[in-house]
Request: fold
Amino acid sequence: MNYQLDQHARDLAITALCLRVFGPTALAALRRVAAVGVRTGVSELQRRRHCQENER
Reply:
């Protein structure tokens, strides 16, 4: 659990630093990148589930 808290604290610090240095535009770009990552992950999960159902 401590490892997860450390990662979360690091991510928050990096986000705050990026926001301070690059402004709100950087935050919008980070949100878009995160959204792409989520969509990619969901697509991969759906693809794997579909492949498993076809194997049955």
The radius of gyration is 17 Å.
